[in-house]
Amino acid sequence: MHGRVLIVAGSDSGGGAGIQADIKAVTALNGFAMTAITALTAQNTLGVHGIHPIPVEFVRQQIEVVMTDLGADAVKTGMLAASPAIRAVAEALSDFAAEVPLVVDPVMVAKGGALLLETEAVKTLKWTLLPRATVITPNLYEAEVLTGRKIAGEADMRAAAHDLLKLGPKAVLLKGGHLEGGLVVDLLATEEGVTRFAGLRVDTRHSHGTGCTLASALACGIAQGLGLTRAVERARDYVRVGLETAPGFGHGHGPLNHAHTLRPGV
To answer: Which of 20, 172, 219, 229 has CB atoms 3.0–4.6 Å from 103's, for a disulfide?
Structure first.
């Protein structure tokens, strides 16, 4: 059940998030990961210490050569950092992957608090990538930035998810992990309605890369033809087990265990 996933995102030198997490997640779920790297970061569990953007022409070239030879069954975008990169990626996907399902993780802030998406780039993201997305996967902070709406509970999440749908994506997976409480609720919103996913919170500081990992696992499921709801279920299960079995590395927000595989049928 291979699925080809092209991941357009930044590198995490600490191995817990970004391209490294994306490749690990897709591989663990029996997909085939390909990459177009948008930025290099000097990063560990304590935070992002430096960012070196890749020239946009080279980002486009990476997408072009992968798509014209290997092809893809899904594309996932992560850290894009600045408006020129977002525009270049949007144009390249229109030129070389127009019919390929697109998962957009609107990465804006790292777990340690470092800003990864320049403020002026938010508007570019809203008008170029979000309207052509199959599904977007914002956390609550990102949803607040994109909608201008304060989110303090599940009712606010539902309202925000509907606002995000108006930006043009076919579906919104709004992640509720930043709300307080022992239950983590995520909402999958489409024009047909809202599906609620809930699970007990895993109490761990080793949660670096959960957003990247979830989005890539979701893209892998879509690439493998699981259907959106089933792909969300499997991606959430994969992240949950990764949190439960985290290796405990680092002095800050440590990485998940990406190496586990879900038992057949999960």
So the answer is: 219
Task: Report pLDDT for 69.
Answer: 98
Find residue 40's DSSP bridge partners.
Answer: 52
List the chain domain ranges. Answer: 4-244
Name the average pLDDT for the chain: 91
Q: Are 145 and 139 in contact (CB under 8 A)?
A: no
Q: Are 138 and 121 in contact (CB under 8 A)?
A: no
CA 116 to chain centre: 13
The crossing angle, in degrees rounded to 10, of helices 154-165 and 140-147 is: 50
Contact partners, residue 20, CB within 8 Å, separation at least 6: 11, 12, 14
Q: Which amino acid type is present at position 77?
A: T
pLDDT at 218: 98
Share of the chain above pLDDT 90, in %: 75
d(C-alpha 151, C-alpha 179), whole Å? 9
- What is the value of pTM for the model shown? 0.94
β pairing state of 32-37 and 39-44: unpaired
| List of residues 6+ apart from 165 with CB closer than 8 A | 171, 172, 189, 190, 191
Spatial separation of the C-alpha atoms in residues 161 and 172, rounded to whole Å = 6
Please name the residue ranges forming H helices in the chain: 18-28, 56-69, 83-96, 121-128, 140-147, 154-165, 210-223, 228-244
Q: CA-CA distance, 19 to 38, in Å (whole number)?
A: 10
Do residues 235 and 214 make contact, with C-beta atoms less than 8 angstroms apart?
Answer: yes
β pairing state of 4-9 and 74-77? parallel
**What would the CATH number be for the domain defined by 4-244?**
3.40.1190.20
Closest to 105 in 3D by CA, of 232, 213, 252, 250 = 213
